[in-house]
Amino acid sequence: MNNHGISRRGFARLLGAGAGAALLAPVVAARGWEERLALRMEGRFEPVKLNPKDPRDLILLNSNENPYGPFPSAMEALVEARSVAMRYPDYWADQLQEKLAEMHGVDPAMVAVTCGSTEVLKLAAQAFLAPGRRLVMAEPTFEAIAYYGRQTGADIVKVPVTGDHRCDFDAMAKAAEERPSLVYVCNPNNPTGVLESKAAVEQLVTRAPRESVVLVDEAYFHYVEDPSYGTLLDAVKVGKNIVIARTFSKVFGMAGLRLGYAVARKELMMQMRPHQVMESGNVLACAAALASIEDEAEVARQRKLNNDTRAYTVGEMEKRGRACIPSHTNFFCVHVAQPARPVIAAFREEGISVGRFFPGLPEHVRVSIGSPEEMQKFVAAFDKVLKSAREHPEGPPERAAVRYPGAAPLWARR
């Protein structure tokens, strides 16, 4: 057994668990998140540069997706829900809202079903930011909140993470104290994967001014095993100015169905709801969520499969002398000891799409956890890729730009 709790033999047994995971036609974008969004807003799309391999054979380790897809119970519900696909989603969204409220022990009025958890970020920005207010966030963290914050005219304050990649809550609290603010905490953080203890986040909430709101993004909640971690739901229940964002995109494997939700006290929810698109729910997504949300056994199986596969891959990186930022998510960041952009491009040439470049992590590459087979291929390509990136720091020769049929642009993926 290695230091990460899984032996090579044990990892080999995982291979069968990932067999048959379907790969979707990918989009491999070289531009940054905001550049791609700007193109989309202009009605333009970033062309996909095809790799030497057929795009359907690309290994997608770039967007923190669950490679196994929805739970079996959710797949059955999706098939059955076809019969109501012609109906507006209110009834099913209301059922899901009530079920989530029951699960979390809150009033249904404290829950909003959204189009992915990214919509929660958008609603919070529109409700709680304006000129003269501040959005306080870590750097790096999930960038979508900054984009929505800029739309409100608020000032964006990015607080660099500490030397061990933790959020600098002292500096974030001081920034929030100067002006009414929306304080964004992604925990565990994306792209670092670092976990902040429940006690540390609660202390930040306590220090934030009464007129400020703390938005806690718990997208990766289900993957965490560390006992110091915990949701902030109890603080919501006692009336704190907290908005919690959750998603069905990660452990539930429903990223393409776009479903998330927010939990907050009623007064905060009343400020957010007017900014939500009416009837923005999705009948199929709600049906899938209702079928799988209480499947604790499958959640536990998915968590173990992900965490064991991550442990194997991180162990292989460390055998090569490559340090990884400790992660509690379905991705990790590996230090490649050279500029990250050429490494990202070299992986694409090998038919593997890894995470985009992140400011603040110029020599790190973020790698999503795929199936055991996919991670074996990632490990097998790793040494070759780093050598190629050193030899071609300007990136591989340009290939003809071709748009792959059916592909959609990346602009707000985690």
How would you describe this structure in keywords?
414 residues, alpha/beta, Aspartate Aminotransferase, domain 1, Aspartate Aminotransferase, domain 2, seven-stranded mixed beta sheet, three-stranded antiparallel beta sheet, 14 strands, globular, disordered C terminus
Question: Briefly, what is this?
Answer:
This protein has 414 residues and is of the alpha/beta class.
Protein topology:
Blueprint: H1 8-18, H2 33-41, E1 48-49, E2 59-61, H3 72-81, H4 90-104, E3 111-114, H5 116-128, E4 134-139, H6 144-151, E5 155-160, H7 169-178, E6 181-186, H8 198-207, E7 213-217, H9 233-237, E8 242-247, E9 260-264, H10 266-272, H11 283-292, H12 296-319, E10 324-325, E11 331-335, H13 340-349, E12 352-354, E13 364-368, H14 372-391, E14 401-402
Helix pairs in contact: 1-12, 3-11, 4-11, 5-6, 7-8, 12-14, 13-14
Description:
It is a single chain. The protein is an alpha/beta fold and 414 residues long. It folds into 2 domains: 8-69 and 296-402, Aspartate Aminotransferase, domain 1 (Alpha-Beta Complex), CATH 3.90.1150.10; 72-292, Aspartate Aminotransferase, domain 2, CATH 3.40.640.10. The protein has 14 helices and 14 strands. It has helices at residues 8-18, 33-41, 72-81, 90-104, 116-128, 144-151, 169-178, 198-207, 233-237, 266-272, 283-292, 296-319, 340-349, 372-391; strands at 48-49, 59-61, 111-114, 134-139, 155-160, 181-186, 213-217, 242-247, 260-264, 324-325, 331-335, 352-354, 364-368, 401-402. A 7-stranded mixed beta sheet has the order 3-9-8-7-6-4-5, with helices on both faces. It has a 3-stranded antiparallel beta sheet with strand order 10-11-13. Helix 5 (116-128) runs parallel beside helix 6 (144-151). The longest helix is centred in the C-terminal third of the chain and has 24 residues, at 296-319. It starts with 7 loop residues before the first helix and ends in a 12-residue tail after the last strand. The model is unreliable at 18-31, 45-53 and 397-412 (pLDDT under 50).
